Amino acid sequence: MNEVRVGLLGLGTIGTGVARILIEQQELISRRLGKNVRLVAAADRDLKTERGLDLSGVRLTDDASDIVTADDIDLVVELIGGYEPARTFVATALENGKHAVTANKALIAKHGEELFPLAASKGVAIGFEAAVGGGIPCLKALREGCAANAVESVYGILNGTCNFILTKMENEGADYADVLKEAQELGYAEADPTFDVEGIDTAHKLSILAAMAYGSKIKFDEVFTEGISKITAADIESASELGYRIKLLGIAKPHGDGSVVDKVEMRVHPTLVPVNSQIAQVSDSYNAVQVSGDFVEHTMYFGRGAGERPTASAVVADIMDIARVSPDGVEYLAPPMAYVAEERRDLQTLSVADIECEYYLRLMVKDKPGVIASVTAILADHRISLEALNQKERHASHAVAVVMLTHETTEGNLQAAISRIVGLEAVEEDVLILRKESTVA
Amino acid sequence: MNEVRVGLLGLGTIGTGVARILIEQQELISRRLGKNVRLVAAADRDLKTERGLDLSGVRLTDDASDIVTADDIDLVVELIGGYEPARTFVATALENGKHAVTANKALIAKHGEELFPLAASKGVAIGFEAAVGGGIPCLKALREGCAANAVESVYGILNGTCNFILTKMENEGADYADVLKEAQELGYAEADPTFDVEGIDTAHKLSILAAMAYGSKIKFDEVFTEGISKITAADIESASELGYRIKLLGIAKPHGDGSVVDKVEMRVHPTLVPVNSQIAQVSDSYNAVQVSGDFVEHTMYFGRGAGERPTASAVVADIMDIARVSPDGVEYLAPPMAYVAEERRDLQTLSVADIECEYYLRLMVKDKPGVIASVTAILADHRISLEALNQKERHASHAVAVVMLTHETTEGNLQAAISRIVGLEAVEEDVLILRKESTVA
């Protein structure tokens, strides 16, 4: 029986999970594939830690370079994370005629456009299902399952840490800083949580989804990105009173003339979604990706967005897809970015000022007569109409919070209005701007 | 550019949708595929009806036999439905070396086991994503996306008509017969709704999912099947008071010694699911499939389970997957039933008596002293313990409803207890038995 030999870079959490599947599910994999997949070698700087796995028969090394050039390896799995040395190792593996599978969203978001043609030129495949949505086979669903559709929108809860924090803030009425601290103690958030809570991780993933949906190049640097760190328990409560839940969403939409897409909208920010929508139910560290198409309507893919075992499940699904066509049938795989290479275009990103949204605004104002009148006059001046306005009770000498939901307007117009509003003597500088989406499933 | 020529059997709702995609999205499909897919011919008994489509350039015929033998067709799409003549047409197409794609769950559930080897022997492919879950790419997710997992359970809301009726009964407190009538008037239910409401359609789909999950043969005849026609508005309310929603689920689970599966449990019945679970939120005519695996944990796939455009989306996804490997790379496709043919086993179906469940029981009893004591004594005698017991108010001279939730027991043991309970003079014959699942996502 034909055999595919795997080399693993990184025996951390996910690497251990991948090794575990390849060892424990060997028979199941062969029954599904008609070939064996064998873990031949693994590299990690730390070879001492007990991983609860019998790795006898696996060549262990602390030098990843060995694996990416080894003659007895057909497929390299990169689970080191980050940009470098991951990029160099994956590129070297591809140059040496080895397939590559990675869970590294940063790598694909930043260097995918150099790795895809390299893989194609060497006749090998590159898989990255685990880079978006953890264990959820959402890239396959978008790339293949919804392939007959012009994609109308992609919405994703793509970061488990943020969703865990927002869920806990909602359930316990707790403030951001307290929940973050608890999440760090539980190991759900990093000591430096910036990457997660400021939306960068979500932006990496969204840039991949958007490029795949619309046949464009991956443009991570152009994603409009805001995190969750300014949200208070009071905002979550205000949103709830209005019938919404706050989720950190990655959102991609097409713009153009009829069916021809010429610009792609990409944004990551805390978003109000209707409380009874499917995506609003996605709680704790779960992830979900909604893909809506002109024929399929709304679809949603739900599951664990991180963790040893779920992420390893997606990595091994890629290994199996590639093993099935290895060594001679790589041309028969669906193209990694859903469009054949020569049909992928360099679409512009919609400029931030042109994004159209409904907005949730939270202003802190001095409780004086006429303030609301002045604020609403400015909004009216910018032709921004209001769907709701709630003035909260005043707490002692503090300023009072005014929460507004607007109808649709452009980001540019809204920002112009806001800059005038914060110029009012009775309004404090710090305005919280959230965005609302109504077309979620 | 290489081209794949498609012949369509049936220009009803879904057939029209498929023709519409192949015509309107021709350029998109080529950009994703690197080949053209062209609709060459279509057969329907009715060629007069205006379908809102420009079918010029498509050969129209009222004789399907022409298409399944035509030299200028590479792939036949069967959208006639039912067992015959669909089976004969698909078999003839395969025998003539044409790929086949179908949305026909009855056909695959009943005749798949004869069609799969026929396709393999002719070196052609057979696709049936649209047969389960309509537009949702759930078979691909199970077959490929979760391929690294031993599947621990499959749960599906697989029939839009039943889910529409149950949602409406819950939202309006209406009774089954009234909602069914309304659904029929709206065209959401057939004049003879038996196939849908008695769970047969769900059983067709479940038998395919179960066989794919566990590497067994499709055994539609062995699915334990109960429909929704006995559920009352009062049952939905009782379930709600206990924290549950009632959904018609198809359920498949493996049984065996360790990781070796030797029996498959398959059942379709109205099921109590926790009201805050993801699957409980799936409302109206939406479908969802939950796949839980030993590595991926819970995943769920959500979308439209029926309708012209969503179902056509799944049909064309299959066409594209097959077109990509046609004519010479069929061997590189994932096997249609997720395991290579020689590894698919003839696993036994778990006998109904051995199914273990938690139960919801609704008894109508005469309001006399000692009745509850007698009923609970019989349950205790069978070692069935209760999680909850609610006696409803009596309506005039009618018997009173008693609702019980039991802890886990076997179907055989429960039925033995029930047959003794209905033997009590104060208990009416008609006991409603629903089942409860707690491990949904």
Helix-strand blueprint:
The structure is a homodimer of 441-residue chains.
Chain A: E1 3-9, H1 13-24, H2 26-33, E2 36-43, E3 59-61, H3 64-69, E4 75-78, H4 86-95, E5 99-102, H5 105-122, E6 126-127, H6 138-145, E7 151-157, H7 160-172, H8 176-185, H9 194-197, H10 200-214, E8 224-225, H11 233-241, E9 244-257, E10 260-274, E11 286-293, E12 297-304, H12 308-325, E13 348-349, E14 356-365, H13 371-381, E15 386-391, E16 400-406, E17 409-410, H14 411-421, E18 432-436
Parallel strand pairs in A: 1-2, 1-4, 2-3, 4-5, 5-6, 8-10, 10-13, 10-18
Antiparallel strand pairs in A: 7-9, 7-11, 9-10, 11-12, 14-16, 14-17, 14-18, 15-16
Top keywords for this entry?
NAD(P)-bd_dom_sf (chains A, B); methionine biosynthesis (chains A, B); 14 helices; 18 strands; about 450 residues; HDH (chains A, B); threonine biosynthesis (chains A, B); homodimer; Alpha-Beta Plaits; alpha/beta; 3 domains
Report what the structure shows:
- 2 copies of one chain form a homodimer.
- Chain A is of the alpha/beta class.
- Chain A folds into 3 domains: 3-134 and 309-340, Rossmann fold; 138-303, 2-Layer Sandwich (Dihydrodipicolinate Reductase, domain 2); 353-436, Alpha-Beta Plaits (2-Layer Sandwich), CATH 3.30.70.
- Chain A has helices spanning 13-24, 26-33, 64-69, 86-95, 105-122, 138-145, 160-172, 176-185, 194-197, 200-214, 233-241, 308-325, 371-381, 411-421, and strands spanning 3-9, 36-43, 59-61, 75-78, 99-102, 126-127, 151-157, 224-225, 244-257, 260-274, 286-293, 297-304, 348-349, 356-365, 386-391, 400-406, 409-410, 432-436.
- In chain A, strands 7, 8, 9, 10, 11, 12, 13, 14, 15, 16, 17 and 18 form a 12-stranded mixed beta sheet that branches. The first copy, chain A, has a 6-stranded parallel beta sheet with strand order 3-2-1-4-5-6, with helices on both faces.
- In chain A, a hairpin with a 2-residue loop joins strand 9 and strand 10 (260-274).
- The first copy, chain A, is elongated.
- Chain A starts with a strand and ends in a 5-residue tail after the last strand.
- The interface between A and B is large, with 65 and 65 residues.
- Strand 12 (297-304) of chain A pairs antiparallel with strand 12 (297-304) of chain B.
